[in-house]
Structure to design on (593 residues):
């Protein structure tokens, strides 16, 4: 699970940190340092050191044998030149980008729809929809991946049965969803979107309820259609939140691992091996750890670009770091 | 008229979105013949607890449950204790490098799983830590501590400066201000953060699956996924019952803190 805080949901503006009092001024060099150092040391040990080691490993030929003997050689930039010339890595990158785009587009659009729907509902329905959203959001992704496997189980899956009843697609009872790339993507896409919509819908809705009523009413008085009101006024107000939520979704969906692994294991073949899955297979199935490390470094760098974008937007939207 | 359209859409949405969860619960209460039928039963005809009994009677359930509890409790305690001091420092003091630290903490949360998984695996292998609780706790602290700091900082920031200043006027030391004034005020934040940390560690599959390497060392998510057995076929009733058991604590805790999430008190957001 990834957790992130945004101030986009219309939170009350944070109180500024207290101005340094006289007494504090004398102590200020020491107190924060003392308070920070335990967490700082632990974080350096468990995050910065591994990242450093990851980069180091990516310049070696660390493999299965090294795990037992501890012996490895430095290979300079070989892992990187290898991955640049590897068709499988490029294919995986393209797959990741396209699939991420599809998941983000799906979840953001549906999320916008549900957010708007919530503003149109009476108390009771709004409460019901919110509870449904929160339960879907709260489901651990390992459990929901297994539920998905069961929903789409050949022979016994309720989805297979349902599609069969429609009589549009022919006999669908025995479709093995994970044996076909397109179908495997469809199943994973549905799961990711199902889990992503609640966060997006509720965050956007929190912002949408902050849109000044007078604006909406004034526009309606002028004879604007509901669609125009939404497009011109609501969307305009939602833009900062929408942008933050979209960037976050891109980061999260780019990192998706469990759901793909538990549904298709990256298969059939490598058809659903996004960068995360491909890296995992390289490092922990093929035990080419050096090569896996190099892919992971590249993946991380690409992601850092997105994170930088996110942090800039966060600062612009008024978050005080 | 307009209300009716919206209500209809809401009803359809709820049906679709709740269905997977309903189907999990529904399957969990069905005897095997009702589970394995080409024509699904939408309500169990002969509801039974057998699937739940079968699930908890699995060979490794109790050991793996114990592993999960130990690892999760240690992770939560370490993250809260270290996090609360760091959050205090990052919210109640101004000092050089504070913004940089905040940015690093935020960026660490966005790392792809394999970026920590690969180096930690190699390091723990060399230190002979694979298969131990320590390996998992260290990995979870790496993922949980940054957001614990971030979430708790959000609660510290909302405390008005005057309260702190009043205590200082009365001659309270920095330590006193922290322990007697600030910490009690962020207690709700500590609970929320603890729940976040619990959920993150409880749900992890990737680290446990990669580091623990032995059935008796696994945690519950790996246990859950291992219901799929290529030899005997999957016991879907048992698997769904196990999924219910595994998910209930998370969903309950999530509902407790959802007020904070939705009202945007600290505008915290969690994604599964």
């Amino acid at each position: 699970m990834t957790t992130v805080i945004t101030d986009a949901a219309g939170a009350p503006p944070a109180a500024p940190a207290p101005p340094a009092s006289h007494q504090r001024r004398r102590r200020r060099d020491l107190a924060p340092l003392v308070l920070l150092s335990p967490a700082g040391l632990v974080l350096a040990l468990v995050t910065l050191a591994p990242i450093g080691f990851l980069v180091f490993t990516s310049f070696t030929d660390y493999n299965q044998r090294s795990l037992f003997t501890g012996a490895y050689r430095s290979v300079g930039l070989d892992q990187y030149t290898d991955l640049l010339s590897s068709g499988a890595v490029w294919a995986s990158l393209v797959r990741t980008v396209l699939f991420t785009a599809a998941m983000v587009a799906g979840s953001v659009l549906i999320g916008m729809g549900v957010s708007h729907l919530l503003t149109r509902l009476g108390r009771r329905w709004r409460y019901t929809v919110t509870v449904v959203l929160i339960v879907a959001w709260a489901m651990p992704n390992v459990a929901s991946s297994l539920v998905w496997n069961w929903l789409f189980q050949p022979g016994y899956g309720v989805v297979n049965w349902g599609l069969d009843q429609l009589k549009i697609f022919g006999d669908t009872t025995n479709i093995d969803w994970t044996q076909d790339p397109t179908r495997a993507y469809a199943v994973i896409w549905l799961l990711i979107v199902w889990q992503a919509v609640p966060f997006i819908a509720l965050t956007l809705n929190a912002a949408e309820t902050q849109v000044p009523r007078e604006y909406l009413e004034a526009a309606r008085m002028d004879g604007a259609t509901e669609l125009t009101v939404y497009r011109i006024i609501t969307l305009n107000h939602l833009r900062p939140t929408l942008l933050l939520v979209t960037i976050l979704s891109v980061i999260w969906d780019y990192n998706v691992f469990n759901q793909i692994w538990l549904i298709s294991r990256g298969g059939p073949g490598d058809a659903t091996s996004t960068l995360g899955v491909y890296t995992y297979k390289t490092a922990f199935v093929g035990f080419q750890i050096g090569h896996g490390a190099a892919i992971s470094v590249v993946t991380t760098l690409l992601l850092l670009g997105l994170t930088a974008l996110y942090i800039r937007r966060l600062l612009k939207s008024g978050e005080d770091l | 008229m307009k209300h009716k359209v919206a209500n209809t859409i809401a009803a359809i949405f709820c049906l679709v979105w709740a269905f997977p969860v309903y189907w999990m619960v529904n399957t969990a209460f069905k005897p095997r013949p009702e589970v394995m039928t080409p024509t699904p039963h939408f309500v169990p005809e002969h509801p039974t607890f057998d699937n739940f009994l079968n699930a908890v009677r699995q060979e490794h359930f109790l050991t793996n449950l114990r592993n999960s509890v130990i690892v999760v409790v240690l992770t939560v305690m370490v993250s809260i204790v270290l996090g609360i001091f760091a959050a205090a420092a990052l919210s109640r003091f101004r000092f050089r490098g504070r913004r940089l630290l905040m940015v690093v903490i935020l960026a660490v949360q966005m790392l792809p799983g394999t970026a920590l998984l690969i180096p930690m695996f190699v390091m723990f292998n060399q230190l002979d830590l694979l298969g131990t609780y320590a390996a998992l706790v260290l990995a979870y602290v790496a993922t949980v501590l940054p957001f614990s700091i971030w979430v708790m900082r959000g609660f510290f920031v909302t405390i008005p400066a005057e309260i702190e200043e009043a205590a200082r006027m009365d001659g309270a030391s920095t330590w006193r201000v922290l322990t007697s004034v600030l910490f009690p005020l962020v207690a709700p934040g500590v609970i929320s953060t603890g729940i976040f940390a619990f959920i993150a560690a409880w749900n992890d599959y990737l680290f446990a699956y990669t580091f623990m390497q032995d059935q008796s060392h696994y945690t519950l998510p790996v246990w859950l996924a291992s219901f799929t057995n290529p030899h005997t076929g999957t016991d879907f009733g048992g698997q769904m019952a196990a999924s219910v058991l595994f998910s209930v604590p998370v969903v309950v805790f999530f509902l407790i803190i959802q007020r904070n999430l939705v009202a945007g008190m600290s505008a915290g957001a969690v994604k599964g």
Summary: The radius of gyration of chain A is 24 Å. Chain A touches chain B through 123 residues (CB under 8 Å). The first strand of chain A starts at residue 2 and ends at 5. Chain A has one domain: 75-316.
